[in-house]
Amino acid sequence: MSDQNGWLKLLDENPQHSQWYIDRFRTMAEAGADLAGEARFVDAMLGRGARVLDAGCGTGRLGGHLAAAGHEVVGIDLDPALIAEAQANHPGAQWLVGDLSELDLPGRFDVVVSAGNVMTFVAPSTRVEILRRCGRHLGEGGRLVVGFGSGRGYDFDDFLADAASAGLTSDLLLATWDLRPFAPEADFLVAVLRIA
């Protein structure tokens, strides 16, 4: 198994991949696709004006929705093109270029969210460190919410073991962002984690 960051590998293979991704979500939005399911899920966990870290924020669709709902949002992603898109379309949040394996921001957050298969793109050797660093950014009572699909090189059991190694424990496991229960045969995992 390669230990390269999967997103950077895609960019090495196709320097236009970031633009393709940006265009894909623009097209989906224009077609009326519901792109805010993850954000609604996270918003339901929070009181107004909460601090949210969007870890692997991409174009800012999740964090931008939460900022528009009145939360203080910081988004971080390693792809400058995606951060530029987030800054252009969602000025109500703070968008930063950075590597989650080196995450070290001031302050603490009520929720750290990593949606959109982010954890399946990171280099496998950095997974536990990323989970550990996300956990360190949680305030008292804070939660880390991670969602990703199966068949992407990161088994759900391995993720849960990595989370435990990072000092996190599960509060809730779901199979979708719309609250369907998780089962071993599920093809998606939404994990709500807290400091153990």
Key terms:
alpha/beta, 7 strands, 196 residues, Rossmann fold, methyltransferase activity, SAM-dependent_MTases_sf
Task: Kindly describe this structure.
It comes from Paractinoplanes aksuensis. Residues 52-142 form the Methyltransferase domain. One of its GO terms (molecular function) is methyltransferase activity. This is Class I SAM-dependent methyltransferase. One of its GO terms (biological process) is methylation. There is one protein chain. With 196 residues, this protein is of the alpha/beta class. The chain has a single domain (6-195), classed as Rossmann fold, CATH 3.40.50. Helix content is 37%, strand content 24%. The chain has helices at residues 6-13, 17-30, 37-44, 61-68, 80-89, 118-121, 127-136, 156-165; strands spanning 51-55, 72-77, 94-97, 109-114, 138-149, 168-174, 188-195. The chain has a 7-stranded mixed beta sheet, with helices on both faces. Helix 5 (80-89) links the parallel strand 2 (72-77) and strand 3. Helix 3 packs across helix 4 (61-68) and helix 7 (127-136) packs across helix 8. The chain is globular and about 40 Å long. It starts with 5 loop residues before the first helix and ends with a strand.
Describe how the helices and strands are arranged.
Layout: H1 6-13, H2 17-30, H3 37-44, E1 51-55, H4 61-68, E2 72-77, H5 80-89, E3 94-97, E4 109-114, H6 118-121, H7 127-136, E5 138-149, H8 156-165, E6 168-174, E7 188-195
Parallel strand pairs: 1-2, 1-4, 2-3, 4-5
Antiparallel strand pairs: 5-7, 6-7
